[in-house]
Design a protein that fits this description.
With 301 residues, this protein is of the alpha+beta class. The chain has eight helices and 18 strands. It has two domains: 125 residues, Rossmann fold, CATH 3.40.50.10330; 160 residues, Tumour Suppressor Smad4. Helices cover 28% and strands 35% of the residues.
Length: 301
Amino acid sequence: MRLQTSDFQVSIAIIINPISGGARPDVARARAQVALAVVHAHGDPAEVFVTEGVGHARELTKAAVRRGARLVMAWGGDGTINEVASALIFGEVPLGIIPAGSGNGLARELGVHSRPERAIADALAAEPRPMDVGEIDGRFFVNVAGIGLDAHVASRFSGARRRGFVGYAGLTARALATYVPSHYRITSGGAQREVRAVLISIANSAQFGNGARIAPGALVDDGVLDLVVIEERSRIATLCHLPRLFNGTVQRIPGCTLRRIREATIEAGQPMTFHVDGEPVQGGTRVHARVHPGALRVAVK
């Protein structure tokens, strides 16, 4: 679906995921009308597109940039934001965010308002600023990438019928009971270590979403990534310390280490599934992660 306010050159593009956060597909037109009304009230011509599948947001964004958009907004969850951002990295056109996902990790860290009307208005009025971007195995991420339990859950969630926070929480609970940690070799800054980890997170911002702060000190504009490794001492200990994700003390979980990196290589004895901003990717036995400082411009207040 495509809607626009005028036939003039488009200056604002809004890319909507109609099912983000467990919404019904028929909410797409309502979201589009809200977006057009707010942008029109601001005095800008606008064009709204609704995605039809994985990868579509990236292609729509590229097309909008070619048509001269000065701002592209992503209305959806972290996966939609990732697709739009991936098409804007290393360019001059900034990203706006309208959060509507299961966790909204990056939006929460950037202080984006939860009300769509307010988020759109704030993006239109904001002075764009640079933020860092992470890359793992050739795939960009703007929030968090990971290997282990969170990637396992992301893989299951991508094919689940039940979307939204409740569906994600249910899958996570089941995974915590059955997931078997793997052995990894991590190389960064000239140092190498062998670990049996339940979780390896590479964080650009501080949280997964819903207030779960995997890297409490992470900043999106500090030129580094936060590498968080949680080695499992016992499953009971892991479960007992999960609340630390929500009070900013994840580093006090037994077996947790946190260090700031510019790049790292992770190796395993079997091909690894990793995720980029919650979207699962099948990798090989070796993946390389790095930071691109200031590679994306973001329009947030």
